[in-house]
Amino acid sequence: MSITRRSVRRSVRILGVASASAAVVLGLSSSALACNIRDFKAEAKCDGEKGLIVVTDTDASRVKATVTVFLEGDGGVETKVGEQEVTGSKEGTQVSFPENWKPDATYRVHIKAGKIVDEDIKPDLVTQSTACKTEESKSPTPTAPTKPSPSESTPAESATPTPSESESSSAPAGTSSNAPSPAAGDSNLAETGANSNTGLIAGVAGALVVVGGGAVFFGMRRRGTRGNG
Q1: For the chain, what percent of residues have pLDDT higher than 70?
Q2: Residue 55, SS3 per DSSP
């Protein structure tokens, strides 16, 4: 079987198409394994009550990259938070920057990987609207003390003197009380003061003594007059 020019041309054409296809596949494969800005991701996280800016590198080509984080302030003024190196992996390699970030703050994250990548992660990182919880916010809010009931705060009624007690305590000493006088049939021997009959009896006895003394005096005088006559 002789080889014609036509068959040779066909073979060369087939080999050219196969080589071009292989070149395209190798180019796509190398592009897929090359370091790319899309291999990096930035997040704002919490470690207990502490804030963190976490950057993850999923570059399977394992190109060493430098990560720099900036806090964007008012008027476009930036503050450098920190800078670290990271070597990516297919599973993802993380680097963390301690930062007590505030809610709705904006951070710019820049990636520099040799001569392959030199740009920012887009869009910029904006923190969540809720800050990391502190220990004080986790603890329960103390309840206000209950107000005492009226019965507890009001003094006992027994402490207030009654009108009768206040009148008796304020009355001067020696004043006769309002107690009723003894019954009429009681003995006068048990009584003292103006209600007793002792004064009347003493007056009658005194009068009898005076009368008796006068009688004795006049009798003795009459006897003396008779003896002298």
Answers
A1: 54
A2: strand
Q: In sequence order, what are the residues at sequence separation of 6 or more whose Cβ sits closer than 8 angstroms to the Cβ of residue 120? A: 108, 109, 110, 111
CB 56 within 8 A of CB 40: yes
Cβ neighbours for 90, distance < 8 A, ≥ 6 positions apart: 58, 60
- DSSP string for 152-179: HHSPPGGGSPPHHHHHHHHSPTTPPPSP
**3-state DSSP percent of the chain in helix, strand and coil, to 5:** 40, 25, 40
Torsion sign, CA atoms 163, 164, 165, 167: positive
Interatomic CA distance for residues 195 and 181, integer angstroms: 10
Q: What confidence tier does 83 reach under pLDDT thresholds 50, 70, 90?
A: very high
Q: Do 111 and 65 touch, CB atoms closer than 8 A?
A: yes
Q: CA 199, CA 201: separation in Å to the nearest integer? A: 6
Q: pLDDT tens, 18-52?
A: 555 555 444 444 445 679 999 999 999 999 889 99
Residues 101, 44 contacting (CB under 8 angstroms): yes
Helices (H), the chain: 5-33, 135-138, 150-153, 163-170, 198-228
pLDDT tens digits for range 117-172: 999 999 999 999 999 986 655 555 556 666 655 555 545 454 555 555 545 445 44
Q: Output the pLDDT for position 5.
A: 67
Q: Which residue did the predictor score with more confidence, 106 or 223?
A: 106
**Dihedral angle at the C-alpha atoms of 119, 120, 123, 124, nearest 10 degrees?**
-160
